[in-house]
């Protein structure tokens, strides 16, 4: 990819040629390699070098249009600018998006966190070793049908015609292991684990193997669970899955579009148990995929969303902040319609941590480890969910795997039914979160 | 026929130049690609394939009475797949110049432990077949310009949204959306494959959110088509608005479904998602390779109720999953999957065919140049049966009518699930009240034997299928069917 200085110069030249006065560009370039293995042999290696940009152009009537392209040479950039200008004549006339007032503000930190990419042979060797370790862990584990070890370099940039120009780059490595068991007279069972880090050397491959192994084996002995209402413990991954699925609660653009469970007046209302606090924090020290600015060039920051059960903040773009008399929060995604999305949740216990409960001593609670099919089973505009899950019935610390069951409820009721936010948090790809205990959720089994 | 095989010296590699037509995939690409394929073979690769793609995509969104988004996207890219023994690698790039494609090939070769031949080696080109051009033979060249303009997209979506306003009550928000995906592809492979196609896929949809106090309902509906530049102009948005307004009105005050095990009647068209998730994915060779299907060694055996016959095919006129050739250059075909309960065929791409032994079916598909092709469904449906709709309902004492399905998924153990957006309680053969919040879960092996009745009213519906090679356009379909019993999750 050209440097941001080269892109800025090319954009200026093309805009001048086309008579375009006002524009901005957000783009990224990715260089990634991933490997999969099958029974000790590499199955597929993928390598990709790709870049893309999104261009916004404002015309003389101050309406705005967008175009995206993967062709970022001078010719491609010029075509994108002219296409965006054509689209601008169909742009919205009310609340037209504008440059972020913080597009040139100082960033909280600079991000140039590149690590050298490891050779493919090293990736294959590491993944073959992980597959073997899982296959050797238990005679019932017959395969690791889904596995991948990947490394990715990513560069992102934002520039505009008023001389904003920023860029950042980082490297990530990740591993995914999903093993499957087969035993005579029993149904096949499976489970997986995922790890991500900034470099391959520091990637917790052993931890991923250990977690995949333990989870898979723990599902070997399974039983049906009786349909009813249960005290449920949600794993950090499960709770963050639900929080993400219902993120319209905090999304200022969704609120303005009437596509949210909140309204502008919801700020300050109690939406959860006072035990719960939630922030979104792209700059959290545990966030591997840290990003320092959003699609509009606004610096990212920590934003309080729920403070001791009270809705305390929304996620904003420059446009939503202006309409709701707030500050941009660094959550915008550039487009014809600027959308807003969270970065990295930090869920933690408020001062009062709730009941003194433990999985070691609790009787007949259901521990939900992972939720499935969120794309299908969540009615985000109604607040309801009905989802299959992997988990265990836990009694005095003893875990028995649950065979095919669903969990259902209303997310707003769930938030208010929290009886414990455990003190110890775990790191997941979506955020940092402890286990969350909830009273009276519907489970359908047999 | 005389074939002339040129054999350039490898010394000349750095001096070679090609002048392909940059903005069109035609036979001018043949010298470049046959040379690159020859280099790859000479390097020791067992098989090489190039996939080139140009996309001109646009989406449009109307909210309330305004167009709030028009988003054009122009994409060009290529992928090269290199096979050596059982292993393969896939390298993608945005650079379609000679040197960009050569760099991608070299990277692929080096990943597989291969390198371009030494100086002075003779490198025979791979002889490609004469270009099989599905775009020219089917006059697809004008499809892009014949499709709706930005102006027309906006006007039609605003009219649709206005119609929604007149048909529904308790409206909180209303949206109409459209996208047009124009794609030109070129495939060249070291077995001589050389084929080009143009595809035009379009989709329109409406969504309605209604609210009355604490009661809420949201209903979406989408229609899709391929190969039809006039699709948007012919869209009957009044009919769609009436349907979703009626559904939203009924679901607004619906009770939550009581969880348990029920017989269900599943509506035609999008009800076909049950077969797609519960069986279709498990017949892909990708699943056989991973040993994640219970049907791995069941060809010729009974895997479903004797009343069930199912097809997967690429050629339905204008259906959403229709393609003339797959993304590996193979013409598509109509593939019989299950006949009267007996498993007849699997769905195979090239690599899947090599690795499992099942014949290719023109099913190698991918979302874009960034993915290697994999075995994927196209237009997949359960064939019409012998029963009337009245007979299906009459067979249910207490059950659930699943009129509109949401999405679903299937896991590595054959366990599937899907959501029901619009459901009704059936008592003594009659629909009695609306229900919401239902999720169906089950196991493929079990459910296929419980589809005991099919009516005669086959209907197809447009959908999106996400899997290993990305999100592709598919059709699901079926007549009304009865499932004797299934677990329904609810409250």
Considering the chains and any ligands shown, give keywords for the structure.
heterodimer, A: 446 residues, alpha+beta, PmbA/TldD fold, 3 domains, seven-stranded mixed beta sheet, five-stranded mixed beta barrel, 9 helices, 22 strands, 21% helix, 40% strand, B: 491 residues, Double Stranded RNA Binding Domain, six-stranded mixed beta sheet, globular, disordered N terminus, metallopeptidase activity (chain B), Metalloprtase-TldD/E_cen_dom (chain B), Peptidase C69 (chain B)
Describe the protein's architecture and organization.
Chain A: InterPro entries: Metalloprtase-TldD/E_C, Metalloprtase-TldD/E_cen_dom, Metalloprtase-TldD/E_N, PmbA, TldD/PmbA_N, TldD/PmbA_sf. Chain A: Belongs to the peptidase U62 family. Chain A: This is Peptidase C69. Chain A: It comes from Desertifilum tharense IPPAS B-1220. The complex is a heterodimer of chains A (446) and B (491). Chain A is built from nine helices and 22 strands. Chain A is globular, with a radius of gyration of 24 Å. Chain A folds into three domains: 4-216, PmbA/TldD superfamily (PmbA/TldD fold, 2-Layer Sandwich), CATH 3.30.2290.10; 219-242 and 352-445, no CATH class; 251-349, no CATH class. By secondary structure, chain A is α+β, with helices and mostly antiparallel strands. In chain A, the strands form three sheets. In chain A, strands 1, 2, 3, 4, 5, 6 and 7 form a seven-stranded mixed beta sheet that branches. Chain A has a five-stranded mixed β-barrel with strand order 9-16-18-20-22. Chain B folds into three domains: 10-58 and 73-137, no CATH class; 144-255, Double Stranded RNA Binding Domain; 260-489, no CATH class. Chain B is built from eleven helices and 23 strands. Residues 1-6 of chain B have low confidence and may be disordered. The longest helix of chain B is centred in the first third of the chain and has 18 residues, at 150-167. With 491 residues, chain B is α+β, with helices and mostly antiparallel strands. In chain B, the strands form four sheets. In chain B, strands 1, 2, 3, 4, 5, 6 and 7 form a seven-stranded mixed beta sheet that branches. A six-stranded mixed beta sheet of chain B has the order 12-11-10-15-22-21, with helices on one face. Chains A and B meet through β2, β3, α2, β5 and α8 of A and β2, β3, α2, α5 and β7 of B. β2 (41-58) of chain A pairs parallel with β3 (87-93) of chain B, so a sheet runs across the interface.
């Amino acid at each position: 990819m050209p440097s941001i200085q080269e892109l800025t110069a090319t954009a200026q030249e093309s805009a001048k040629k086309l008579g375009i006065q006002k524009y901005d560009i957000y783009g990224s370039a990715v260089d990634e390699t991933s490997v999969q293995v099958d029974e000790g042999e590499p199955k597929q290696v993928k390598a990709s070098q790709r870049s893309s940009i999104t261009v916004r152009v404002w015309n003389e009537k101050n309406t705005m249009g967008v175009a995206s392209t993967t062709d970022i040479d001078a010719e491609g950039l010029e075509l994108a600018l002219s296409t965006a200008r054509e689209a601008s004549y169909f742009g919205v006339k009310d609340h037209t998006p504008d440059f972020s007032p913080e597009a040139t503000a100082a960033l909280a930190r600079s991000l140039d966190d590149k690590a050298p990419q490891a050779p493919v042979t090293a990736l294959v060797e590491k993944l073959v070793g992980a597959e073997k370790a899982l296959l050797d862990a238990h005679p019932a584990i017959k395969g690791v049908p889904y596995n991948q070890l990947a490394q990715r370099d990513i560069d992102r940039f934002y520039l505009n015609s008023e001389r904003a120009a920023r860029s950042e780059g980082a490297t990530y490595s990740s591993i995914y292991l999903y093993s499957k068991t087969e035993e005579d007279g029993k149904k096949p069972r499976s489970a997986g684990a995922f790890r991500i880090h900034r470099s391959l050397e520091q990637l917790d491959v052993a931890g991923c193997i250990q977690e995949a192994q333990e989870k898979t084996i723990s599902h070997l002995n399974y039983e049906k669970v009786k349909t009813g209402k249960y005290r449920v413990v949600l794993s950090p991954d499960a709770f963050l899955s639900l929080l993400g699925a219902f993120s319209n609660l905090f999304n200022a653009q969704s609120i303005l579009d009437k596509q949210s469970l909140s309204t502008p007046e919801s700020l300050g209302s109690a939406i959860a148990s006072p035990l719960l606090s939630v922030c979104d924090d792209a700059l959290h020290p545990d966030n591997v995929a840290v990003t320092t600015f959003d699609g509009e060039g606004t610096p990212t920051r920590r934003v309080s969303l729920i403070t001791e059960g009270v809705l305390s903040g929304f996620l904003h773009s420059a446009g939503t902040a202006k309409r709701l008399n707030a500050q941009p929060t660094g959550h915008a995604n550039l487009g014809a319609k600027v959308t807003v999305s969270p970065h990295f949740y930090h869920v933690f216990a408020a001062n009062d941590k709730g009941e003194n409960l433990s999985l070691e001593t609790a009787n007949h609670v259901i521990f939900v480890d992972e939720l499935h099919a969120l794309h299908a089973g969540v009615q985000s505009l109604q607040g309801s969910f009905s989802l299959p899950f992997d988990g265990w019935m836990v009694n005095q610390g003893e875990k028995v795997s649950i065979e095919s069951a669903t969990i259902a409820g209303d997310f707003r009721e769930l938030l208010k039914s929290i009886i414990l936010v455990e003190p110890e948090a775990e790191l997941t790809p979506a955020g940092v979160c402890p286990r969350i205990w909830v009273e009276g959720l519907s489970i359908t089994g047999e | 026929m005389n074939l002339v095989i040129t054999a350039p010296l490898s010394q000349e590699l750095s001096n070679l130049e090609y002048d392909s037509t940059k903005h069109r995939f035609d036979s001018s690409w043949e010298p470049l690609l046959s040379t690159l394929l020859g280099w790859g073979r000479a390097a020791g690769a067992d098989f090489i394939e190039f996939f080139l793609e140009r996309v001109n995509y646009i989406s449009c969104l109307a909210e309330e009475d305004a167009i709030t988004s028009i988003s054009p996207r122009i994409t060009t890219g290529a992928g090269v797949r290199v096979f050596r023994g059982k292993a393969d690698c896939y390298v993608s790039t945005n650079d379609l110049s000679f040197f960009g494609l050569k760099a991608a090939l070299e990277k692929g070769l080096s990943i597989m432990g291969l390198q371009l031949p030494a100086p002075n080696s003779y490198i025979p080109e791979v002889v490609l077949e004469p270009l099989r051009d599905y775009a020219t033979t089917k006059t697809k060249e004008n499809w892009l310009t014949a499709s709706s303009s930005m102006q027309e997209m906006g006007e039609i979506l605003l009219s649709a949204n206005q119609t929604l306003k007149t048909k529904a009550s308790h409206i909180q928000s209303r949206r109409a959306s459209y996208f047009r995906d124009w794609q030109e592809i070129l495939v060249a492979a070291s077995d001589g494959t050389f084929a080009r196609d143009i595809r035009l896929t379009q989709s329109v949809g409406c969504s309605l959110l209604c609210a009355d106090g604490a009661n809420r309902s949201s209903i979406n509906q989408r229609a899709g088509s391929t190969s039809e530049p006039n699709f948007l102009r012919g869209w009957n948005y009044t009919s769609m608005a009436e349907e979703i307004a009626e559904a939203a009105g009924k679901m607004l005050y619906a009770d939550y479904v009581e969880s348990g095990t029920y017989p269900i009647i599943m509506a035609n068209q999008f009800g076909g998602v049950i077969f797609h998730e519960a069986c279709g994915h498990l017949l892909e060779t990708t699943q056989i390779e991973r040993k994640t299907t219970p049907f791995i060694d069941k060809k010729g055996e009974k895997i479903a109720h004797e009343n069930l016959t199912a097809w997967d095919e690429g050629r339905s006129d204008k259906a959403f999953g229709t393609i003339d050739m797959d993304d590996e250059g193979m013409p598509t075909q109509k593939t019989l999957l299950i006949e009267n309960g007996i498993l007849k065929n699997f769905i195979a791409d090239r690599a899947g065919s090599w690795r499992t032994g099942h014949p290719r079916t023109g099913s190698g598909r991918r979302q874009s140049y960034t993915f290697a092709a994999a075995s994927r469904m196209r237009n997949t449906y359960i064939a019409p049966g012998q029963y009337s709709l009245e007979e299906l309902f009459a067979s249910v004492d207490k059950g659930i009518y699943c009129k509109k399905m949401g999405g679903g998924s299937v896991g590595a153990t054959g366990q599937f699930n899907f959501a029901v957006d619009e459901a009704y309680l059936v008592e003594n053969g009659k629909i009695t009240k609306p229900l919401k919040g239902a999720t169906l879960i089950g196991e493929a092996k079990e459910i296929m034997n419980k589809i005991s009745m099919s009516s005669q009213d086959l209907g197809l519906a447009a959908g999106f299928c996400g899997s290993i090679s990305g999100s592709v356009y598919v059709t699901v379909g079926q007549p009304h069917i009865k499932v004797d019993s299934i677990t329904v999750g609810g409250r």
